[in-house]
Write a structure and sequence with these properties.
Strand content: 15-25%
Helix content: 25-40%
CATH class of the largest domain: Alpha Beta
CATH topology of the largest domain: Rossmann fold
Strand order of the largest sheet: 7-6-8-9-10-12
Number of domains: 2
CATH superfamily of the largest domain: Response regulator
Largest sheet: 6 strands, mixed
Oligomer: single chain
CATH architecture of the largest domain: 3-Layer(aba) Sandwich
Distance between the termini: 25 Å
Length: about 260
Amino acid sequence: MLTEQSFVSLYGAERIKRKAANVSWAFFRPVKTVEIAEEAGEDIIPHAIAQVSAKPYCVVFPLRFSGSAASYIEQNPGVLVIILEGRHQYRRTNTGLFIYKTDIEADFYRAGLAAAVISKDKTGNVAVFIEPRQFSSYRELTRPAFSRGMEECESAREIKFYSSLAEMPANTGLSCVVLAGTAYDYLDKKEEVPVIVFSWLDPSLMPRDAVLVIDDSPWAQLKEAVSMAEAGEERGLIKSEISILSKNFNRRILQKLRQIR
């Protein structure tokens, strides 16, 4: 698994070790990290991989290294080579690569379910902040999916969608906030409103208001990606991983949140 050094700081070294161990047990193969400096050029990648494993079974490239993945598969045709493109788009020009994307529709649907559960006994609206590019590019996926999740739980809360914190009127009563790639400065307000965060950040570094994290990082998707590649699925969608952070939910809410898959 290729990983940038800055990502290790963001995601957490111990967290990566746990993920690697879980995937190793699942596939009976050791998972090794190829740690790359941000300034490393594309030509460095094959040498870095070879130093970690001379004949890897599978190599996983985050989208940032997609150029290296395309050249690596040409030089190593017997290796499973995976690109995890996340919420962005990879220009598919090469064959032989396994390319998986985050299941955006499923993620926002599940976020809607969670927001409905969290806000059920509260007053106020639900505010959803979607990163501007996703707001425009995935309008037909994100907003309807989130609304469908809320409606499925028969939530009476009104949903307000924004692409920046500046768009939200002052003194808006809120029962839950969803931060999907933007408006993270909302967490500085310390409003004591439950917040669902789409983030790769180590949960231990999250403010107290963040009660649930939706993580579509490469490490969160690794196990599913390798399973799909082994099954021969060249393209596919992978749901993000949901982590419940708050210990203050009552048993009923916790049970419902844990049922979201």
